[in-house]
Amino acid sequence: MNRTPPLLPGATIGVLGGGQLGRMMALAARRMGYRICVLDRDARCPTGQFADDVVVGTLDDLESARTVAERSAVVTLDTEHVPAEVLEAIAPICPVRPGPSVLATIQDRAVQKRFLDAQGLPQARWAPVGSPEELAAAVAAIGRPSILKARRAGYDGKGQVRLEPGADPRAAWHSIGDVPAVLEALVPFAREVSVILARAMDGEVRVYPLAENEHRRHILHTTRAPAPMPDERRRRAEEIARKIATALDHVGVMAVEMFELPGGELLVNEIAPRTHNSGHYTYGACATTQFEQHVRAVCGLPLGDARAFTGAVMVNLIGDLWANGEPPWQHVLAHPEARLHLYGKLTPAPGRKMGHVVLLDDDTDRALRTAEELVAKLAT
Ligand code: ATP
Ligand code: MG
């Protein structure tokens, strides 16, 4: 039983990393009466715009992280790329949730994959790769097409390269920067799904409706929820995600990305120990958003209701849409079921996530079509 008293509103939540996930969590936290202290290299970062207090520094700077911990009642994360060593070092000052060991397992792809293997959970065939010679051996074992991924610091497909049959492994190794990596078999998936859940300090788990995700150029493009899926397979997906969260002793929101094979088998792609882009639909569709849920979990409060009141589709707004200046948002706002979220990023860049639109509609096929129409209108 968890006997730690909850951190009640009025307390300060420290957030390491000032991106859009921290921003949306800060909005939820401040609505509930909490204070936010964020660490980021830029005071005008998306979270900083909604924080009570900003510490300017990089995520690997121990002194800056210590300052945040000293000013906070609990520290949490906007990104899994805060070095676990930094979290270890500040844990004696104030609780860190999720804990440093969760991050140590997840932020290195090889450690994460070993963990999944140890749990007996299904994933693509893989091999660790530490040199061009090891890559040649891994290619011989795993085959091609396959994907070489840097062990650390990847997001939105960065630090990854696909190896086609006949491709030169040495060139692939150089292209990701000569860093320790893993080689993964390319999965011929029928579709991608993710389970968003929250785990409380007492071990209770609440699962959101399953999300179905489509990526474009390795960046999430759309999510629909609930993903149409036979009950038994959906339960299997939820069971995999629960097992991961429990085995890690995770606290907070977590996303587990999965591949669904044409025959219905599920493989884990990767674990994100935080709120997730594919959970943005919860803001609008569900009784408790993933951001409020994360605040509740890390503050030791009861979890909120994860039930959805409606189907929903989320479409990401990528920096490319800003090529001709500010996109014509009136086209989005003219739809009564549409909600616009922009992250306040000061410089739009191609491939950069700038915002998203959530469309509330029980007919998610129709909402997906509307999403495409909106993106087409915004791009002109
Ligand atoms: P993010 O953090 O944005 O989810 P990431 O950089 O950590 O991205 P992954 O989730 O590993 O990257 O890969 C991004 C996308 O690339 C996947 O969602 C999937 O569409 C595709 N992909 C990655 N690995 C494989 C694989 N082994 N087989 C087939 N497709 C893959
Ligand atoms: Mg991913």
Describe the secondary structure blueprint for this structure.
Elements: E1 12-16, H1 20-31, E2 35-40, E3 53-56, H2 62-71, E4 74-77, H3 84-90, H4 100-106, H5 109-118, E5 126-129, H6 132-142, E6 146-150, E7 160-163, H7 169-175, E8 181-185, E9 191-199, E10 205-207, E11 211-216, E12 219-225, H8 231-248, E13 252-260, E14 266-272, H9 282-285, H10 290-298, E15 312-318, H11 330-333, E16 338-342, E17 353-360, H12 364-379
Parallel strand pairs: 1-2, 1-4, 2-3
Antiparallel strand pairs: 5-8, 6-7, 6-8, 9-10, 9-11, 9-13, 11-12, 12-15, 13-14, 15-17, 16-17
The protein binds adenosine-5'-triphosphate and magnesium ion.
Structure description:
The protein has helices spanning 20-31, 62-71, 84-90, 100-106, 109-118, 132-142, 169-175, 231-248, 282-285, 290-298, 330-333, 364-379, and strands at 12-16, 35-40, 53-56, 74-77, 126-129, 146-150, 160-163, 181-185, 191-199, 205-207, 211-216, 219-225, 252-260, 266-272, 312-318, 338-342, 353-360. The protein is globular, with a radius of gyration of 20 Å. The protein is an alpha+beta fold and 380 residues long. The mean pLDDT is 96. Helix 2 crosses helix 3 (84-90) and helix 3 packs antiparallel against helix 4 (100-106). The strands form three sheets. Strands 9, 10, 11, 12, 13, 14, 15, 16 and 17 form a nine-stranded antiparallel beta sheet that branches. 30% of the residues lie in helices and 26% in strands. Strand 1, helix 1 and strand 2 form a beta-alpha-beta unit. The chain folds into three domains: 12-96, 3-Layer(aba) Sandwich (Rossmann fold); 125-185, ATP-grasp fold, A domain (Dna Ligase, domain 1, 2-Layer Sandwich), CATH 3.30.1490.20; 191-378, ATP-grasp fold, B domain (D-amino Acid Aminotransferase, Chain A, domain 1). The longest helix has 18 residues, at 231-248. Residues 257, 269-270 line the site of magnesium ion (MG).
